[in-house]
Design brief:
By secondary structure, the protein is of the alpha/beta class. 40% of the residues lie in helices and 11% in strands. It has two domains: 78 residues, no CATH class; 356 residues, Alpha-Beta Barrel (TIM Barrel), CATH 3.20.20.
């Protein structure tokens, strides 16, 4: 490993130069002092626990912090880039890192955004703000068929599997969740001891590979599910239908990351690329999915059961609503994953050209449930590039009840977005299965950072709500979020978008929805447009 080679090299150099200084001229002592200083710095870097990159790259890692002290443009270009190749907003990065470190400061010199640009969105503050609550609001997850509801925080850890992340990263996330009282989604890679290590509340995600609850031939195993879901730390179960990074494809874990340990947890061959099927084998129609959800709720002794998807077709969403009505059964929650979200590796064509953005997907699902008279039975989660308090409040206005974050949580745990996740060579030990790299991530320190980040961000969301004159989530309305649509005009979300009223689809569907509503079939995910005038 580089760190040991560098320390060994410096130690050897100190010894050699020391001998030369003893028998040579005084000039050797200058070099000796420099080498001794570098050796001391290197040894300290390896044993300290605060900075993962210095533990893996002693001495050399300080170049990163040097760049951070230079112009923001250099920092933005050389250090931290988004997974989709586009730089993350500098202010957002700064706030995530500072909040994770327990620094809740403000930025100087005002906004760097062009507030007059078309597309600029802003929240409408009140002349008479209300007092900020002592604690951020929470939401109770559990419909009428759920006997063990769960109190969900405003911001939680989104789905990231063991395999995608290291054991130490998962430990830190789970301990942070335990400290802050928020939920940690396991990702589709199965339930592992590292998810259970910190005592945090878990949302157990089950994907099309059914990892951790599968038969020998890869199908869903009810007996294994019933045994595992009984664990006290599992508070809810989420069925993954699709994800924002690559909707329509199953999860992929590169062969380099499929270690013997991961292969054992997932029940797959070691050192072979692990690809989940694109579709589930346990159900193939909306009605079958709703029945599957009801079955899982019974097997789990009444825990909340829901599903996650990136919305593509409004007809499919309406088909799900019709299936719920036909079966007289609903999921307890639905998580909408935006196409802009996702920390997973994915083909570029899928990242950039398939799936709806979070705003559109969330508002379609919210309005479909309202129009079908189902919204009061189901809680909605939002996942996709949620990082700060304003993101949370905007999603609540657009129809969500709670939010999930993956990328921001990774940054809180130490990710520098080196974009080496798929290579197993993460420089800070977050997205790797190399134990030599993963050891750099100090669980105790990073769990505190996860806790501080989530706490500060949810408190900021509560403060923003108070500034809008709102004391409860239910008081947030589309009038409080506005968008500039031209150089001279801006409008609220209430004006820009269509908002259905309760039972409207059942009584008299609006002209803009009627064809999709008629084409939706509870017994098929395929639109039934035959005979309809499109």
């Amino acid at each position: 490993m580089l760190r040991f080679f560098l320390i060994g090299f410096l130690a050897t150099a100190v010894l050699a130069v020391g001998v030369a200084a003893a028998i040579g001229s005084w000039a050797w002592y200058v070099l000796l002092v420099i080498l001794v200083a570098l050796l001391v710095v290197g040894v300290y870097d390896v044993i300290q626990t605060r900075h993962s990159i210095l533990r893996n790259y002693p001495v050399l890692g300080h170049m990163r912090y040097l760049l951070e002290s230079l112009r923001p443009e250099l920092q933005q270009y050389f250090i931290e880039r988004n997974y989709d190749g586009r730089p993350y907003d500098r202010d957002v990065r700064t706030m995530i890192y500072e909040r994770a470190k327990g620094i809740n400061g403000e930025l100087s010199f005002g906004t760097e955004r062009d507030v007059e640009a078309v597309g600029y969105e802003y929240l409408v503050h009140s002349i008479a703000p209300v007092p900020q609550p002592a604690e951020p609001p929470r939401v109770l997850i559990g419909g009428p068929d759920c006997t063990r509801p769960y109190s969900m925080a405003l911001l939680n850890v989104s789905a990231m599997s063991f395999g995608a992340l290291s054991a130490n990263a998962l430990r830190a996330l789970n301990r942070g969740a335990a400290l802050g009282g928020f939920a940690h989604d396991t990702g589709e890679g199965g339930l592992t001891p590292y998810h259970l290590d910190g005592g945090g509340d878990l949302v157990w995600e089950i994907g099309s590979g059914y990892f951790g609850t599968r038969t020998g031939d890869g199908h869903f195993d009810p007996a294994r599910f019933k045994d595992r879901v009984a664990h006290e730390r599992i508070k809810a179960v989420s069925i993954k239908l699709s994800q924002g990074a690559k909707p329509g494809l199953g999860g992929v874990l590169p062969a380099a990351k499929v270690t013997p340990e991961i292969a054992e947890f997932r029940g797959v061959p070691v050192h072979e690329k692990c690809v989940s099927p694109a579709a589930h084998s346990a159900f193939s129609t909306p009605r079958e999915l709703i029945r599957f959800i009801a079955g899982l709720r019974e097997l789990s002794d009444g825990k909340p059961i829901g599903f996650k998807l990136c919305v593509g077709s409004r007809v499919e969403v309406l088909a799900l609503c019709k299936a719920m009505l036909a079966e007289r059964s609903t999921p307890d929650f639905i998580i909408i994953d935006g196409a802009e979200g996702g920390t997973a590796a994915a083909p570029l064509e899928y990242e950039d050209h398939i799936g709806l953005p979070l705003t559109d997907g969330l508002m379609i699902m919210h309005n479909a449930l309202v129009g079908a008279g189902l919204r009061d039975r189901i809680k909605l989660g939002a996942s996709g590039k949620i990082a700060l308090g304003n993101d949370i409040v905007k999603r609540l206005i657009q129809g969500a009840d709670f939010t999930m974050a993956a990328r921001a949580m990774m940054m809180a745990v130490g990710c520098i977005q080196a974009q080496r996740c798929h290579t197993n060579e993460c420089p800070v030990g977050v997205a790797t299965q190399d134990p030599r790299r993963a050891r750099a991530l100090d669980v105790a320190d990073k769990s505190e950072r996860v806790f501080h980040y989530q706490r500060a961000t949810t408190m900021q969301a509560a403060q923003i709500m108070a500034s809008l004159g709102v004391s409860e989530i239910a008081q947030l309305t589309p009038h409080l979020l506005r968008k500039r649509i031209s150089p001279t005009e801006q409008r609220s979300y209430a004006e820009l978008y269509e908002w259905l009223t309760p039972n409207q689809l059942l009584e008299e569907p609006p002209a803009t929805w009627v064809l999709d509503w008629v084409a939706a079939d509870p017994d098929s995910f395929r639109p039934q447009f035959a005979g309809l005038d499109r």
